[in-house]
Amino acid sequence: NGEDGLLQYIEHAPDIVFVDIHLPGLTGHQVLKALKIIDPNVFAVMLSVDTVKDNIVQSAAGGANNFLKKPFSKERLLSIVKMSPYVQGISRGNSSMQSY
C-alpha cells in the first residue's frame, strides 16, 4: 500500500521507484506527491493499466519521470530504468554513485 511504500522509501532510499496509480490507502498520485516532498530528486515512474489521459497528465504534473502502461515489455522497462540519472552514473563508472 502507499503508506508502506513511503516508509520503505525512507528506510532504503532506492535509486528508482515504481508507483502504481491504484494502491490501497494512499493513491499513487498521493504517494508521488509525498515522495517529492521527502526527496525532490526521486526518480519515480508511475504505472497502471488505467491509462486514461488524466492519469498520465496528473502523473507528469506531479513530477513523475515517466509512465509505464501495464502490461509492459522487458525492453520498455529497461529503457526507462536506463533514463535514471543514478543508473546512468553507475554505467559511466561514476564512483560516487552507489548501487544497492
Describe this structure as you would to a colleague.
With 100 residues, the chain is an alpha/beta fold. 46% of the residues lie in helices and 13% in strands. It contains 5 helices and 3 strands, in the order αβαβαβαα. The protein has helices at residues 2-12, 28-38, 53-61, 74-81, 85-91, and strands spanning 17-20, 44-48, 66-69. A 3-stranded parallel sheet has the order 1-2-3, sandwiched between helices. Helix 3 (53-61) links the parallel strand 2 (44-48) and strand 3. Helix 1 (2-12) packs parallel to helix 2 (28-38). The longest helix has 11 residues, at 2-12. The radius of gyration is 14 Å and the shape is globular. The two termini are 23 Å apart. The model is unreliable at 95-100 (pLDDT under 50).
Low-confidence stretches: 95-100
- Strand share of the residues? 5-15%
| Helix and strand run | HEHEHEHH
* Straight-line distance between termini: 23 Å
| Side-by-side strand order of the widest sheet | 1-2-3
Number of strands: 3
Structural class: alpha/beta
| Count of individual helical segments | 5
Q: What is the 3D form? A: globular
Average of per-residue pLDDT values: 89
Oligomer: single chain
Rg of Cα set: 14 Å
User: Can you give the helix content as a percent range?
Assistant: 40-55%
Biggest pleated sheet? 3 strands, parallel
Please provide a brief summary of the model.
This protein has 100 residues and is α/β, with parallel strands linked by helices.
Task: List its traits.
100 residues; alpha/beta; three-stranded parallel β-sheet; 5 helices; 13% strand; globular
